[in-house]
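Example 3.2
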Amino acid sequence: RNPSTLTEFYSNECFVSKLWNNAFGLVRAQLRWDFLRKQLKQDEDNGWLYHKLVYIPKGSAIPDGGGKDKQIPHEGMIRIFRSHVNDTCFQSLKDFQSSRQNDPHGEHIRADSRPDYYYRTYKETAQYIDLIPPRALTWTYDTTIIIENDIEYDEKPRLVNEFIAFLDDVTGASGSLVQEKSSEGRWNLGYHEIVNVRDSTFSRIHPRPPHKGHGTETTNFLSVLKAKSSMLGPRRVKFAHLKGDDECRTFIRKHLLPIIGPRPSGTNGNNE
């Protein structure tokens, strides 16, 4: 669970001992330190693309949906805008399914008969995650810091499909071209790009394919497993690509993590 939701229990309305407040503050700082380091490492290992990083200082208020403002704690808040190829493919399928379900004319009698009515290109977009540092970043002088990466998109959409295979009752089958293992005979083979429709050639989507290029070829792999395509069919997707250096992760490694420092231990009386 993201500990950014932990509240300030030692407000003026809580009549508890100073010792208890200090103990709770230390545990909360440790949880936030652990989660922040773990999240950043998982994002890098799993191929999340960072678009923008924002540090929001204490005392600020930002929209949080539902017409309400989210109050920033005294430690400040780190908001990272990120995206992933697998999440983008999944969202594109949901977008297609939603378009079909919400069509007021129905699937067979719709007024617009053009094939791109449902098959509009889906563009990879970033969603944000909020992280609270274990202590206030005093070096910011209550200034909002924004670090942005240079992002470019595919010029032409890629035709992407999801595939599955059935292996009788085999469980635990794995392969270098697939992230998941088979379970009870069903193997989710993930998303693959249809490089050439006529020749039925496919390539790997994860990790992210290169800009103006394709991933590892998976044609023979899918053929041997007699892979079946998703019920919803292929989707047209434009993926995002990092142009130049990763400024967000450079900022994290060279500035953010050194300032945050080691895990709080409480040995110096300041939850540090």
